[in-house]
Design goal:
Keywords: Membrane, Transmembrane, Transmembrane helix. By secondary structure, this protein is α+β, with helices and mostly antiparallel strands. It is built from 19 helices and 23 strands.
Length: about 625
């Protein structure tokens, strides 16, 4: 047995070492490619930033140069207008050009013909003499124009120049200056790919390329020998270039390489690195790791073999002997193998398991003795499919004998039944739930986790719940009218006013019966009680979806209508209440009828306040005023 274990352990450790090396190599090569892609994206971002910055600088230089040209043109126009005597003196004209630091200085008459300036060789030309000159033709028809031409070859020499022209203030002609745009051309040169790549340095084994996205021509590269070639000629198949940020392995410039790509408008940026340079550190790290793992494997095998001989083999044999004794039925046997902490822990678990089996039998025997009350007890272990339960479980849960046998045979089905009952909570904090069925029955359920098992009780509390509901009804409901009493009304109204979203638009109506004393005196207290019941019936029959009604005292009632979306809806409810009162009368035993009436006062939420007690006071005050006014007018 020991030889077999040694052989298998050696094979397992060597296989694990080999798999670790392969996994480590795969992870490191993947990481090297990922790092290469990441650093390439950073480099591409830097190139984009350089291009964007250079473009912005070039745009600003072009703008500044145009502004400078216009300023010099205006200065030249001012000089000519201030000193008309210099127009015929060529030396003075050239002197003005030097003072303004311009290359050319021209004077045009109102018809657009060049008649003077620092360059006599251009005399006689006009705005129609060439494409470059025609740019200024609109100035002949609109003297408010001040034009500055983009850099363009001039008409006479095809020399790159930038011209600006303005009208003289006296309207006697147009003054034009021309300047060589050296600084602008230098700035534009910085945006050329050849200039950008001249600034970049590539790591050993790496190269950077800029490829035209349409022709796939190499426009720029840190390897000058590849300029002018196509992507296919240097080894990158255009059809295989990924559109995302994935890499591509290819033979570039005759070297096995890994490529990263970035798309920037009409240009594809490519960074390549040879596989040898990319995986150089990976190969070195893998070799070093292999040496460490080999040394560790030798030490580990020696240690494991020694430990197996001294502790494991002897411990397994001792545990097996004890388990055979327990399997034979000797549950009083105790496992005491302590060759290692693990075997000591295993011995404890085995002994605990045996004690648990014995203890479970004792618990069930005791529970069966006290099962004379409406309580059911159950227990099951996760490793045991069947549920051990008292016979009252089936009666309490409304299970037939067949259903109980099927459910108790599988603790998963039993727990599913309990879960279904828990979906009908009555008092979850106390564990009270309602059973499904036509007649209302209630149970209290509790369960306790015991190591790997569950112990629970199910108690029939139907009578307790019914008694509680009866007490709550007597406590909260007025016996004469069937409405809430004062305490119940306050308890239900206070939570509503703490939740403005649920309350919505609301109205609180205080109601006091009219002529109740006369009804009691003339027709007896029995009819007086019926009179109050008629008022309660009016409140209960009011067609409002959300309302609370209560009798606060002898002949004083309150109505809360809430959850409405507008004041108009509330006003409609009040009108319906008033109409129902006007059509209501109390029939007496002798065929006579007496009208039923009451006085009311309203307070609206939130117009009249947000506090429930303040609204109650305002509604009561308004009810009292309405009652006094009715008495003064003789209506009651």
């Amino acid at each position: 047995m020991k030889q077999m274990i040694r052989k298998k352990l050696s094979l397992i450790i060597l296989a694990a070492m080999l798999l670790s090396l392969l996994f480590n190599y795969a992870v490191q090569t993947r990481g090297a490619r990922r790092d290469m892609l990441f650093t390439s994206q950073e480099l591409f971002w830097q190139i984009h930033q350089i291009l964007e910055q250079n473009a912005a600088e070039t745009k600003q230089i072009e703008y500044d140069f145009k502004e400078s040209c216009l300023v010099r043109a205006k200065a030249a126009a001012y000089i000519v207008q201030s000193r008309p005597d210099i127009v015929g003196h060529q030396a003075e004209m050239e002197k003005v050009a030097n003072l303004l630091d311009v290359d050319e200085f021209h004077l045009f008459d109102p018809d657009g013909t060049l008649y003077g300036g620092s360059q006599p060789k251009y005399f006689g030309l006009n705005f129609r003499s060439g494409e470059q000159m025609q740019f200024f033709l609109p100035m002949l028809s609109d003297r408010s124009l001040e034009l500055c031409q983009d850099i363009t070859p001039n008409t006479a020499e095809q020399k790159l120049m930038q011209y600006a022209a303005v009208w003289r203030e006296d309207g006697e002609g147009i003054v034009q200056i021309g300047m060589t745009p050296g600084r602008v051309l230098d700035a534009k040169k910085k945006n050329e790919l050849s200039y950008i790549f001249s600034l970049l340095t590539a790591d050993s084994g790496a190269a950077i390329y800029a490829i035209d996205a349409e022709s796939y021509e190499v426009l720029g590269s840190t390897d000058p020998d590849q300029l002018g070639k196509t992507a296919g000629e240097i080894g990158i198949d255009p059809k295989k270039i990924p559109t995302g940020r994935e890499g591509l392995r290819a033979t570039v410039a005759g070297r096995d390489s890994y490529c990263a790509f970035s798309f920037s408008g009409p240009v594809i940026l490519v960074r390549t690195r040879t596989i040898d340079s990319l995986y150089q550190s990976v190969n070195q790290d893998t070799l070093l790791l292999a040496l460490y793992l080999l040394l560790g494997a030798v030490i580990l095998l020696f240690t494991i073999f020694h430990y197996l001989d001294s502790y494991i083999i002897s411990g397994i044999s001792a545990v097996n002997r004890k388990l055979m004794t327990i399997t034979g039925g000797d549950l009083d046997a105790v496992v005491e193998v302590r060759t290692t902490p693990e075997f000591a822990e295993l011995s404890g678990h085995i002994n605990s398991m045996v004690r648990s089996l014995l203890d479970m039998t004792n618990k069930l025997s005791e529970i069966l003795e006290i099962a004379r009350i409406p309580i059911g007890v159950y227990e099951y272990n996760q490793g045991m499919k069947r549920v051990l339960a008292t016979s009252r479980i089936a009666d309490i849960l409304r299970l037939s004998k067949g259903e109980a046998e099927g459910i108790l045979a599988d603790h998963a089905r039993f727990e599913a039944v309990l879960t279904e009952i828990r979906r009908r909570p009555v008092d979850p904090e106390r564990g009270i739930y309602e059973l499904p069925g036509p007649d209302r029955r209630f149970v209290r359920m509790e369960s306790f986790s015991r190591e790997h098992g569950t112990l629970g009780i199910v108690v029939d509390v139907t009578e307790d719940i019914a008694e509680k509901q009866r007490i709550e009804h007597e406590r909260d409901v007025d016996q004469l009218t069937g409405l809430y009493n004062r305490r119940a009304f306050y308890r239900n109204a206070d939570p509503l006013f703490s939740d403005a979203g649920r309350l919505g638009q609301a109205v609180l109506v205080m109601i006091d019966s009219d002529n109740l004393k006369q009804v009691n005196d003339r027709h007896g207290h029995e009819n007086g009680d019926r009179y109050l019941q008629m008022i309660a019936g009016l409140l209960q029959s009011l067609p409002a979806e959300k309302k609370l009604t209560a009798r606060l005292s002898g002949d004083e009632f309150v109505l809360l209508v809430y959850g409405c979306s507008s004041r108009q809806e509330l006003d409609g409810a009040i009108r319906r209440l008033d109409l129902s009162m006007k059509g209501c009368s109390l029939p007496l035993g002798d065929g006579r009828e007496i009208p039923v009436s009451f006085s009311a006062g309203c307070a609206f939420f939130p117009e009249d306040g947000n506090d429930f007690h303040i609204l109650l006071k305002r509604a009561d005050d308004r009810m009292y005023r309405n009652k006094q006014q009715s008495k003064q007018n003789g209506r009651i």
